[in-house]
Amino acid sequence: MDPAREIVKLCEDWWKDTPSDSAEKMHVCAGKFFEYLGWQETKDFDSAFLDFSAYVEAPDGISLVLYFTPADTLLAPSEVIGKGLDFCNNTRWRVEEAREHHFDYAFITDLYRSYLYDVDSDELLLSCDSPSVFLIEIYDEITRECVVDGSLRELRRNPRSALAKQLRQWLQGWSDTIALQPGSSETVADALFDRLVVLRYLAEREQDRKGGSGLRNRITMLGAQARDNNPTRLGKEIERLFMGLHSARRMALFEATPAMKALVENDEMMTRMLIEFALISKSKFSIPVVLESFNYGEAAEKARVRLAPGGDGRREDLIASQTLERIDNFKLEIDIVEEGYRAIGYWLEKLIALYRRLGNKVEVAQLSEEDSGERMPRAIRDMHRHAVESGLCVFHNSPRQYRTARLMLYLYTIKAYSDSGEAFAHFPNIEAALAERPVFLESEKGWKSHV
């Protein structure tokens, strides 16, 4: 008996018999599926869905949960991926459940179409539109023998460029749709996308912190409202979310404008967009992928997306020479034209590390409780805010550079706060770090423009 061929036959026979689909038959079919994969021992899993589901564990502790859904409940993966998405509705909710139960991987199939996910990273690893393709693409990776040998850990992940291309594909599709709306434009679409990217990144970063899931829960509720075909006032709810981020957290990116208000209050369109937004993996909202999604257009801008930062001895010497007495007046200038966008995060991290190093030298115990706050430099008292508002100056030379640099500043700042474990009730003024590139930069610093 060839187990792989038996699985294909099992799936084909199941689909021939779908009118008599039943839970009992699904249970029998799933049992044979496990057997052909070599998993003789499975553990029951009480799923909230009307599936047959069970999980298996390798000796090294790796867990794989398998969902067998009713016939014809999954979209073809090629259709999902073709839209720049990673999930259909039925796979999204099952991966969320798998995450709640701390499974490492999730395999979801209706015995015709199949998806394999890394639960923690939210990544779609493998998929197939038919049993015959399952045999080629997935079978060898989830047999017991291969899983024990580490096949799931060794699966090749999609490169950053591929993820960024899919993200841009989704953004561009909606940009074209938005640009056709009365009173809207590509610029308004870009502004909405920047908000969505920051919103998703912030929500995921807060989710990683204990007790910090409020924002992600609000996004989930909005997505549920959209999926339930209840779009009434959905736009108002989105607008209220944006207003809260602007007023309560002082994030200028979310400031209300007439054009944005008109756009998000288009309930029908925002319903469709939010449904898809929830079906994109969180891995596509990482800083490297978001930045890589700007790798298009003129060659010079594409180069700035990938330009590696560092190698500036003069700056390193300046940083090393700073003292507590001078630190509040110390500012690093970053030229996007010459240094690219990754330099923003690189030097922001260096600047905060400098503040932290100097702060460690302060003998707080020698200061009285009354005057310690006054004598402490602002760069030490409020490191992240000072770094953004007073420690950096990012020069840009075009609307596109301004947009990309501003978005990167938001993401890098969120990352800095999150990595430090510090809360940020009030966001730094990002605009304070941005400035138009003056002509004197080229002559005084000897830089040659590529623009």
Task: Give the key terms.
23 helices, disordered C terminus, 451 residues, 6-stranded mixed beta sheet, 3-stranded parallel beta sheet, 9 strands, 3 domains, alpha/beta
Low-confidence stretches: 364-370, 446-451
Q: Give the overall shape.
A: globular
Number of continuous helical runs = 23
Compute the number of structural domains.
Answer: 3
Radius of gyration: 26 Å
- Main β-sheet, in a few words? 6 strands, mixed
Tally of extended strands? Answer: 9
Q: How do the strands line up in the largest sheet? A: 1-2-3-4-5-6
Class from secondary-structure proportions:
alpha/beta
Taking the alpha carbons of the first and last residues, their distance comes to 66 Å
Beta-strand percent range: 5-15%
Q: What's the rounded overall pLDDT mean?
A: 88
Condensed summary:
The chain is an alpha/beta fold. 54% of the residues lie in helices and 9% in strands.
Written account of the structure:
- The protein is an alpha/beta fold and 451 residues long.
- It has three domains: 3-148; 160-285; 307-445, no CATH class.
- It is built from 23 helices and nine strands.
- The protein has helices spanning 3-16, 23-37, 77-82, 89-100, 131-137, 139-142, 144-148, 160-179, 186-207, 214-227, 234-247, 258-264, 267-277, 287-292, 299-306, 313-320, 336-339, 342-361, 372-375, 378-381, 383-391, 399-420, 440-445, and strands spanning 43-44, 52-57, 63-68, 105-109, 114-118, 123-128, 332-335, 392-396, 434-436.
- The strands form two sheets. Strands 1-2-3-4-5-6 form a six-stranded mixed beta sheet, with helices on both faces. It has a three-stranded parallel beta sheet with strand order 7-8-9.
- A hairpin with a 7-residue loop joins β1 (43-44) and β2 (52-57).
- The chain starts with a helix and ends in a 6-residue tail after the last helix.
- Residues 364-370 and 446-451 have low confidence and may be disordered.
